[in-house]
Amino acid sequence: MSKEAAIRIAPNVWRIPAARFDFVNIYALVDDDGQVTLVDTGFKSGPAKAAAGLAAMGKTVGDVTRIVLTHAHSDHAGGAATLAEQANAPVAISAIDAPFARIGQAPPRDQSTFLGRRVGKLSAPGKDFPAIVIGEEFEEGDILPVAGGLRVHHTPGHTPGHVALMHESSGTLITGDSIWNVRKLGFGVKAFCTDIKLNRQTSHILGELEYQVAAFTHGPHVAEQAREKVRSFLRDAAKKK
Ligand SMILES: [Zn+2]
């Protein structure tokens, strides 16, 4: 549980804790020329955390040239509208989650849990998070021009357009919310998923990729035997089903 405003997890990748106890993370990737891409933006309160993290990296919001979102939920997209305006930077998200980001509403929740039905009822455009102007949409297999290349792995279920992002040159996988590392590896809060079963099914992709660092959007990153730990979690989870 770090109190640092930014933690370097690979030569040009930083984790910026955006809520208490590392519960939510923003990631910052730095290009060779110094420009910064933020992956996710935390809650509405995220921009202040991003600014503090960037300062700890010797950067400012003015160095941010792109914002990439793993999915259209308030704890990842909540700070996007403000940060995009502050940095005058375009926001990118998967084409599937883009319509939700544009209206500031999370995709539908899985109706199989009580909490999911409740959360779904409270959801409305502009109420979940501030509406975002989306500058770029991406899809499975795209390589975003971020710090040498960030590959898009579509892992639907948590939201329909949810993605994990692989920074291949540093061997860092930004997992998104398919799985998290809050206290231990797990599947996160079911009620927030659009399709709980599909999330479990597509999470196997995270066990098949090659990486050294697992950069979770919730919880601390894992830098040692990350892939093995993710694989063994997924293997055990599949057995329990
Ligand atoms: Zn989340």
What are the SSEs and their pairings?
Blueprint lengths: L6 E4 L2 E5 L7 E6 L5 E4 L6 H11 L7 E5 L5 H4 L2 H8 L3 E4 L3 H6 L10 H9 L11 E5 L4 E2 L5 E5 L8 E5 L4 E3 L5 E3 L1 E3 L9 H7 L1 H5 L4 E3 L10 H15 L1
Parallel strand pairs: 4-5, 5-6, 6-7, 11-14
Antiparallel strand pairs: 1-2, 2-3, 3-4, 8-9, 9-10, 10-11, 12-13
Bound molecules: zinc ion.
The site of zinc ion (ZN) has 6 residues, from helix 2.
Task: List ligands, each type once.
Answer: zinc ion
Gross morphology is: globular
What's the overall average pLDDT, rounded?
95
**Low-confidence segments, ≥5 residues, pLDDT <50?**
none
How many strand elements? Answer: 14
In the CATH hierarchy, the third-tier topology is known as: Metallo-beta-lactamase, Chain A
Largest sheet: 7 strands, mixed
- First and last CA, distance: 31 Å
Helix content: 25-40%
| Spatial extent as radius of gyration | 16 Å
What order do the SSEs take from the amino end to the carboxyl end, as H and E?
EEEEHEHHEHHEEEEEEEHHEH
Query: CATH superfamily name?
Result: Ribonuclease Z/Hydroxyacylglutathione hydrolase-like
Give the class-level CATH name: Alpha Beta
Structural category: alpha/beta
Q: What is the number of domains? A: 1
**CATH architecture descriptor text:** 4-Layer Sandwich
Please identify the oligomeric state. single chain
Q: Helical segment tally?
A: 8
Strand order of the biggest β-sheet:
1-2-3-4-5-6-7
Strand content: 15-25%
